[in-house]
Amino acid sequence: MNQQIKIPPEAVELYTRFIHGEISRRAFGAGLKKCAVAGMTTSALMTALMPKYAEAQQVRKDDERIRGSYVTVPSPNGNGSIRGYLVRPYGADSREAAPFKLPGVIVIHENRGLNPHTEDVARRFALEGFMAFAPDALTTAGFYPGDDFKGGQLFAKIDKPKLTQDFVAAARWLKARPDCNGKITATGFCFGGGMSNTLAALLGDELAAAAPFYGAQTAAADVSKIKAAILINHGALDKGLVDAYPAQEAELKKNNVRYEGHLWPGSVHGFFNDATPERYNKVTAPQAWTRTIEWFNQYARA
Fold first, then answer.
1. Which of the residue ranges 95-109, 145-159, 242-256 would you say has the lowest mean pLDDT?
2. pLDDT digits (tens, 9 = 90+) for 266-282
3. Which is the most buried residue in 47, 118, 152, 213, by most CB within 10 A?
4. Helix/strand/coil for 212
5. 93 pLDDT more than 70
6. What domains, with CATH codes, occur in the chain?
């Protein structure tokens, strides 16, 4: 792609609507046709907007500083079980295990399943000294299919109440592991951000902290159940969530929930996802990451 060609914001918004299942692939293509700029065809525009997982990877799966594996967790109140990617630090020289008991973090993907970006984020947490578990909501549908659009179609068919219980089971399994220090946190993106807020209410004092990224807020009736410290990350250009933020903040204050809210400037929905470079904000994403690590260290290591 010619880096001098700026992708129109309307095209980025179309991608967001498409990947969330709000418009069809055909409508996405038709909309991009209207957004096409000089020097870039509709096809090239679509290619520029699609995820680039290999290019965005920050931590390789075989990095000697970590150890990762796929683990299936029982979920008797949900869909029976949920599989996820478990990764923890290994130690500076790879021959010596890292400290045995670590704080845990549940890393929850967007509405497409456990894609390579979410697994990479889990590995980043491991390098920060956490034991990270990234469950795949598509476990009962055959797992993430290797394509975000297809993943979104499968995700739409999953029983959502049962899926919520799958994530509750995953969180409690992580907390109960003998190599966990007994304190867990949750973070996630879009669907995962909303699920992080949901877990905060469902788990009560079982959850130390949460850092939802551009996720739906906890239902007002459930905010009083939150005992975790909540770090909210919204993009300032993400209109729907920004418009809803004052009500979200008011409920947190009313219920004396420890929280901190950020409306990151110049940032759209998906601003943290460096696999989608047209949405990624290279200034605010690292700032949000640093604050998240600080937040989790504050509440999960004391």
1. 95-109
2. 999 999 999 998 899 99
3. 213
4. strand
5. no
6. 9-49 (no CATH), 53-300 (3.40.50.1820)
Integer angstrom CA distances of residue 214 from 66, 102, 149: 28, 27, 20
Mean pLDDT of 178-182: 94
**Pair 249, 231: CB distance under 8 Å:** no
**Cβ of 176: how many Cβ atoms within 10 Å?**
11
> At 140, phi and psi to the nearest 5?
-80, -10
When pLDDT is cut at 50, 70 and 90, the band that residue 7 belongs to is: confident
Position 41 confidence tier, pLDDT thresholds 50, 70, 90:
confident
Q: What angle do CA 231, 234, 238 make, to 5 degrees?
A: 165
* pLDDT score at 12: 81
Block residue for tokens 């905010």: 223
Residue 215 CA: distances (Å) to CA of 144, 193, 211: 21, 4, 10
Query: Which pTM was predicted?
Result: 0.91
- Provide the pairing of β-strand 131-135 with 102-108: parallel
Q: At what angle do helices 9-19 and 148-155 cross, to 10 degrees?
A: 50
Q: How far apart are CA 255 and CA 199, in angstroms?
A: 17
C-alpha span between 238 and 155 (Å, rounded): 23
Q: What value does the mean pLDDT take over residues 199-212?
A: 98
| Residue of 213, 216, 234, 235 lying closest to 9 (CA atoms) | 235
- Contact between 129 and 207 (Cβ < 8 Å): no
